[in-house]
Amino acid sequence: MANKYSIRFSGAGTHGLIQAARILAEAAAIYDDKIAIESCSYGPEARGNASRAEIIISDEAIDYPKAEIIDFLVALTQEAYDKYHVDLKPEGILVVDTGIKIGNEKKDWKIYLVPFTEISKKECGNLPLINMVALGFFANVSDVISDSSIRQAILARIPKESEDLYINAYEIGLKASALQAYL
Questions:
Q1: N or C of the chain: less Cβ packing under 10 Å?
Q2: What is the pLDDT of residues 144-181, one digit of tens each?
Q3: Contact predicate 55/24, CB 8 Å
Q4: Which H, E and C letters describe the chain, residue by residue?
Q5: Cα(129)–Cα(60) distance, rounded to whole angstroms?
Q6: Rounded to an integer, what distance in angstroms lies between the CA atom of residue 33 and that of residue 9?
Q7: Residue 40: beta bridge partners?
Q8: Interstrand relation of 110-114 and 70-75 (parallel, antiparallel or unpaired)
Q9: In this predicted model, which residue has the larger pLDDT, 92 or 127?
């Protein structure tokens, strides 16, 4: 990892992306001994429109808490892609749900098309677990935070009765990343 790595999870307010971002920030700061900061949108966007949650992970002090140039962008809706892709650095990683139309501004992005919605409904039986599927995908593709740290952070944040559901969805995301080619 370079000195600083910025991640943005974006989609609809019902996708649980703030929870995924907090888990990732805790995994980095508490279990991987890195410096991490998380920020998110809570305004009208959190009620179904394009929402976002951002994490900056660094080996050094973070001097500004907002992610301005993104290394890794997950967009789960067209609206989120349209609104947030402009912040992705030219050599960044873009992960979008299938069906999202990507414009011609691709630059040198590494692009993954992943059926997150379909996977969450069919394999997890629950669309709100799309956040854990996306987190698993991120974990395997980025190699920024260790798998064991993310698992520890999930277990620390999730109620005991839901642990199996969340870990299963996370593992489905890990497996999905192994099956996806990038453009």
A1: C
A2: 999 999 999 999 999 999 999 999 999 999 998 766 55
A3: yes
A4: CCCEEEEEEEEEHHHCHHHHHHHHHHHHHHHCCCEEEEEECCCHHHHCCEEEEEEEEECCCCCCCCCCCEEEEEECCHHHHHHHHHHEEEEEEEEEECCCCCCCCCCCCEEEEECHHHHHHHCCCCHHHHHHHHHHHHHHHHCCCCHHHHHHHHHHHCCHHHHHHHHHHHHHHHHHHHHCCEC
A5: 32
A6: 22
A7: 53
A8: unpaired
A9: 92
pLDDT at position 1: 45
Q: Which domains does the chain have, with CATH numbers?
A: 4-179 (3.40.920.10)
State the Cα–Cα distance between residues 174 and 147, nearest whole angstrom: 9
Q: At what angle do helices 17-26 and 130-142 cross, to 10 degrees?
A: 40
